[in-house]
Amino acid sequence: REAKMETKILSFLGLLYVACSCAFPVVPEKEKEDMQFKYLENFYDFQDEKRSLFKAENLDRMTDKIREMQSFFGLEVTGELNRKTLDMMKQPRCGIPDVRSYSTFPQSPRWKKEDVTYRILNYTPDMLEDDVDEAIAKAFQLWSSVTPLRFTRLYSGEADIMISFAAGCKRTSLYDEKHNFLTPPLFFLVHGTLAHAYPPSRGIGGDAHFDEDENWTKFTTNNGYNLFLVAAHELGHSLGLGHSNVFGALMYPIYMAVDTRNYRLPQDDIDGIQALYEAPTELLPREEPTEMTPMRPEDCDPHLTFDAVTTLRGEILFFKGSYVWRKSPFFSVIEHDTISSFWPSLAAGFDAAYEVDKKDRVLFFKDDQYWAVSGYSIDSGFPKPIQNLGFPTSVRKIDAAVYDQNTKKTYFFVGSKYWSFNENTQSMESGYPRKIAADFQGIGHTVDAALQKNGYFYFFHGSNQYEIDLKNKKLVRIIKSNSWFNC
Ligand SMILES: *[C@@H]1O[C@H](CO)[C@@H](O)[C@H](O)[C@H]1NC(C)=O
């Protein structure tokens, strides 16, 4: 299982050469370069324009990103990857990208009430339960002492902030002992880091996860991480704060072992949280799904169908109406969310979605329009009409889309036919549309949603999914549409 996960990470990163280098203690220069690349890509939104003919331009942009990082961390700004910069890249850190001069998340989400609840779902075996309770309570106190917020602990049911310990990737740094880059860039949820938390919203919003592969401690020591300190940082995210570039601030993205007896919240963090909560909070009723919004179906409902399915930075996202199910390669639990908690300006009810992972881009389709997103942000210039992709005006909407990593082509399904779009040339291929049944043996019906994963296509139709061999396009087996959910 471990080996399988490793392969997944590696193939996801497209770093197959890292797989080879694991066997050798020496890391060639070229690979080091690529690892640094990955770091910048992860945390500084640096996009390697693989298709760019102008390598020099790419190098310039990389230098800029290194400068940005050096400036963020208060290092000497040289644009060069010197020893100090490399060491900074290897620090254990929190899994949210650094944004210079940013103190909140996009759209500044915050709790629109003063009474916020939390629940501790499980405990780490590293500490006494009472000590865990105390560390968490003290971390909340730091924030409640400077805001109108009141935190109440729940022992059952759904709290606003759910706190849990879970074993993730067994890494504390972005590199292993052999300096191999290991962290897959997941959706603002970077594994192999100490912990992560989600900004305020319903569902998973506000929740904080701590990596059980770490040694959690009551006091600051050399062989573990002070739970109070990490929890206080993560709860900052749970309340809506992003990272700070002020060295010594609690929201600085790198763990700093400081003595936490008589710990006081640094001024920069007080300024940040008061920018979000200083104003008297208007007590809005908790937003409940209205009659117009049907309830989210149960994961294991045998009749469950989906509107669209896509991968996103290593996870699989399943869409239906305004709901999203997230399947991470590291956790067996399925996370539930709403589309609006990720992309507030996108309308729910997608027809299709697909990811071109090399470009870190996901495209969403609804009626005759489509949007491109990278992580949280919607690319500018969208929505665009689907005719821009080469569809005739007679096509009013598409049923499903899937990107084939092997051929670099995207297939669009419309009724009983499909189209093939060349992602390299950004044009529709001639000779299409063709009958789905003519090329995908055993598929004699429309496709609701489509996914490519582990060497197979999965075509969803009603409550079933059809597993199709990527190479020969033959039907392998039919499984239930929710078979990813451990039902
Ligand atoms: C975890 O930290 C505690 C406290 O410093 C220490 O006693 C213990 O040996 C550490 N455990 C591991 C596995 O490092």
How would you describe the oligomerization state of the chains in this entry? single chain
Main sheet strand line-up: 2-1-3-5-4
Quick one: CATH class of the largest domain? Mainly Beta
State the fourth-level CATH superfamily of the largest domain: Hemopexin-like domain
Summing up helix and strand content along with how strands pair, one would put the structural category as alpha+beta
Mean of pLDDT:
78
The CATH architecture term of the largest domain is: 4 Propeller
Domain Peptidase metallopeptidase: 107-279
Binding site for Zn(2+) 2: 94, 233, 237, 243, 251
Pfam families: Hemopexin, Peptidase_M10, PG_binding_1
Active site: 234
Q: What does this entry look like structurally?
A:
Strand 13 and strand 14 (369-374) form a beta hairpin. Helix 6 (129-144) packs across helix 7. Mean pLDDT is 78; it is low at 1-28, 48-54, 98-102, 169-192 and 279-291. This protein has helices spanning 2-13, 16-21, 29-44, 55-72, 83-89, 129-144, 227-238, 267-277, 339-342, 436-439; strands at 115-120, 150-153, 161-166, 195-197, 208-211, 216-217, 225-226, 308-312, 315-320, 323-327, 335-338, 352-356, 361-366, 369-374, 377-378, 384-385, 400-404, 409-414, 417-422, 427-428, 434-435, 449-453, 456-461, 464-469, 475-480. It has three domains: 27-89, Orthogonal Bundle (Muramoyl-pentapeptide Carboxypeptidase, domain 1), CATH 1.10.101; 115-277, Collagenase (Catalytic Domain) (3-Layer(aba) Sandwich), CATH 3.40.390; 308-485, Hemopexin, CATH 2.110.10.10. The two termini are 19 Å apart. The longest helix has 18 residues, at 55-72. It is an alpha+beta fold and 487 residues long. The chain has a five-stranded mixed beta sheet with strand order 2-1-3-5-4, covered by helices on one side. Strands 12, 13, 14, 15 and 16 form a five-stranded antiparallel beta sheet that branches. Strands 17, 18, 19, 20 and 21 form a five-stranded antiparallel beta sheet that branches. It binds 2-acetamido-2-deoxy-beta-D-glucopyranose. Residues 215, 217, 221, 223-224 line the site of 2-acetamido-2-deoxy-beta-D-glucopyranose. Ca(2+) 4 binds at residues 307, 351, 448.
